[in-house]
Amino acid sequence: MITETNGVFHIQTGVYSYLFKINSYGIPEHIHFGAPVKTEDAFALSCRPGLGWGSNIVLNPDDTTSCLDTLALEWSGSGRGDYRESPLELAGKSSDFRYVGSKIREGSAPMACSLPQAHGDCQTLELTLEQSDARLILYYTAYPTALVRRAVLENTGSSPMVLNKLMSFCLDLPGTYTMATFNGGWIAEMRRQDVSVRGSKVVNESLTGSSSNRHNPGFLLFEADATEDAGRVYGFNLLYSGNHYAAAQQSLQGLTRIMQGINPSNFSKELAPGEKFETPEAVLCCSDRGFGGLSENMHTFVSDHVIPAYWRGRPRPVLYNSWEGCVFDFNQRRLLDLARRAKDLGCELFVLDDGWFGARNNDKAGLGDYTVNKKKLPEGMEGLSQHIQDMGLEFGLWFEPESVNPDSDLYRAHPGWALTDGFPEVQGRNQLLLDLTKAEVRDYIVENVSRILDSAKISYVKWDMNRHSIALGAKAHDFILGLYEVLGRIFGPRPEILLESCSSGGNRFDLGMLCFSPQVWASDDTDPIERLTIQEGLSYLYPQSTVGAHVSAAPHGQTLRQTPLSTRGNVAFFGCLGYELDLKQLLPVEIREIKAQIAFYKQYREVFQYGRFRRTELGWQVSDGKTTLAGVFHTLVHAAPGYEQLRVRGLKTDTMYRVTALSQAIRVGQFGGLLKHVSPVNVDPNGVLLRVVDRYFTLPEGTEELTASGAALGSGIMLRPLFRGTGYDQSQRTQGDFGSDVYLVEEIEG
Ligand code: DGJ
After folding, report:
1. Distance (Å, rounded) from C-alpha 502 to C-alpha 556?
2. Residue 172 is part of a domain; what is its CATH number?
3. Is the residue at 41 inside a domain?
4. What is the number of domains present in the chain?
5. Sign of CA pseudo-dihedral 207, 212, 215, 221
6. Do 638 and 497 share a structural domain?
7. Are the CB atoms for 703 and 658 separated by under 8 Å?
8. What spacing in Å lies between the alpha carbon of 574 and ligand 1's midpoint?
9. Is the pTM of this model over 0.90?
10. What's the CA gap between 514 and 520, in Å, rounded?
11. Catalytic: which of 464, 525, 527, 741?
């Protein structure tokens, strides 16, 4: 509900209150963003500058409280005494916007440009501010667990004005915070790094043309005592896939100014008289229940209001993807063989990745030419997809429509369609970007992708992008607007196609792409130990249903790490499960294990994909209220490990629960020469006998089965001990490095 009482605006849901007032100078002053409060609390929660701080600029010489520099503001101009960073810059001009009126409407205010918007039940406050030659509208859209803000600037003067910067929001929060950002690069996404926000500005930004794997646009601010379960945490994110910028800085008065929007670096937009510029939507979330509470609010918002409505709550298929198993080396026979094997394992969707069109036999040629390679696929896409469907599988296809190889028919026909900067071209992965600011380029992509999609029964698309932009500022923004237009034209009329966005893995894991694609390929790094960091980083801001997570081969291509198949599965369970390896090379024991993994995942898929996610001492848990699945993950083991306690959050204290560990197989071969201690015959660790036995037989790890009350589980139950070099039996977990378990915790009825 949004109300206005004597100049005090109160945006309140059951989850948060956001309060600000219009002061006597027409300046919106921020009052509160946090736990729900009453409108009457406005005075108690407002900053009280008293007689001010001394020699500052004041709007009114008779009023020491009229010093903008010392107030908590909702927005700030420049050149009027507030020396903190301004969310708006007009070239060579000061700005001074004052309140002229407001409107409260049901629903959101539609954008005029192609930027995506959150959707669903909401209410919007439109706050209009003006100066002599411009109008600024600040939009506040209230969703149950998040507030969405954006700004629109209109040139109301009679001459052009140059806009160098316009943030989606600006906010001054009282308090001292640490900022958590999620940084990295290719195969190393979403590493959380914390920086204290004091007098020096802390910036989280991307300049690659994408939201980027270097610095995800989502970030957190938290108070020093915040934990997973308690304390004040704020979360911010942007519905945008291009260059982004966020800054936080604390003032002398103890106010932390936060802003986020399109990166102003090299950005410049001339606005003709009457012309408007719209920013992307920014998401503001808060919780007094720690990081866990913040993630819950963010997840709910993303699941209910960001991902396309058709896919809200819909189970995602277990997929097989051809990339890591085949790379470019396949033909119809090989693909059908893989599909048969994938079906037998329990997969539901077969995805043909890169290499199916033009002269795309490696990454040097063919990108841009969406004509099926008949040498590889003699029956075309229609024939291949029909065979796959006849096996009872759905069919999905990879595209990379935004890029072009110079060695392609498309580039030879239209060299001018590539994005250039006036200097000799520089390539990334042997490719250039297409100039999506050109209508004819957008039409080419829409027509070609649509043609293929309509030529066969394709129920899934992986939309890849592997080239960073060279375009700067406003051109980079126009490129992203072009991309959104293209995505809307292709997938708007085909909502039932499951779109998975990808950009060299998680180079564009952002809320802009999630408005079109319900899931994103989180990383080209499928090593489960690396995924513990990547998926945990994502979990702060994005729900599990948005995270593509696959089991691949070991040793792993990016780390050379050898990990148990059980752990590869246990980690991928906490996302949208897929398999991406050469299925022909699987051993009989691995086939058995994968079948069991997929069957287990399907049984609890909705809890894994849509359950409430929590980070715990030993790993992660998901829960739908009745069923909880808790993952316990180990990295390097130490000798003589101590007792381990599993704490399960969110259970009913008086209710009894059954706890079962997912049974796991132990590969005999991993014991090598140690087998001589238990075997009646002397087994040669390098001999044929062990190799043969290892293909077909495994040792049981035993399972955990106990009952406990919710109170005991919340306090922490003792797990079976880990292997301690004192022998093998089923009373302990025989796991070496990188071992893991998944515990099923179910309410006992009656
Ligand atoms: C990069 C993606 O991240 C991979 O999953 C794969 O689709 C390749 N591109 C294909 O070229």
Report:
1. 20
2. 2.70.98.60
3. yes
4. 3
5. positive
6. no
7. no
8. 21
9. yes
10. 7
11. 464
Domain shared by 593 and 637, yes or no: no
Q: Give the pLDDT confidence of 399-437 residue by residue, as tens digits.
A: 999 999 999 999 999 999 999 888 888 999 999 999 999
Residue 683 covered by a domain: no
Residue 28: exposed, middle, or buried by beta-carbon count in 10 A (0-12, 13-18, 19+)?
buried
Residue nearest to atom 3 of ligand 1 (CA): 504
Of ligand 1's atoms, which has the minimum distance to the CA of residue 503?
3
Cβ of residue 397 lying under 6 Å from some atom of ligand 1: no
* Whether the CB of 464 sits within 6 Å of ligand 1: yes
Dihedrals phi, psi of 383, to nearest 5 degrees = -65, -50
Which residue has the least CA distance to atom 1 on ligand 1? 504
Tens-digit pLDDT profile for residues 447-457 = 999 999 999 99
Q: Are residues 602 and 471 in the same domain?
A: yes
669 located within any domain:
no
Please return the burial class of 614, using the count of CB atoms within 10 Å of its CB with bins 0-12, 13-18 and 19+: buried
CA 628 to CA 623: how far, in whole Å?
4
Residues belonging to the chain: 750
Which of helix, strand or coil describes residue 717? strand
Query: Is a pLDDT exceeding 80 seen at residue 750?
Result: no
Rounded to the nearest whole angstrom, what is the distance from the C-alpha of residue 489 to the centroid of ligand 1? 24
Catalytic residue among 524, 525, 527, 741: 524
In the residue annotation, 464 being an active-site residue is answered as yes
Residue 165, classed as helix, strand or coil, is: strand
**Statement to judge: residues 644 and 560 lie in one domain:** no
Nearest atom in ligand 1 to 502's CA: 3
Residue 500 has pLDDT above 80, yes or no: yes
Torsion of CA 118, 14, 138, 130, to 10 degrees: 160
Tell me the pLDDT band of 278, cut-offs 50, 70 and 90. Answer: very high
Does residue 20 form part of some domain? Answer: yes
Q: Are residues 243 and 344 in the same domain?
A: no
In which residue are the tokens 């058709």 written? 310
Strands (E), 392-527: 394-399, 403-404, 432-433, 460-463, 498-501, 519-521
For the question of residue 741 being annotated catalytic, the response is no
Ligand 1 test: best mutation among 402, 462, 521, most atoms within 8 Å of CB? 521
Beta strand ranges found along 588-647 (DSSP E): 612-615, 619-623, 627-633, 645-646
- The single-letter code of the amino acid at 506 is G
Q: Are 318 and 300 in the same domain?
A: no
Q: Which domain holds residue 342?
A: 309-617
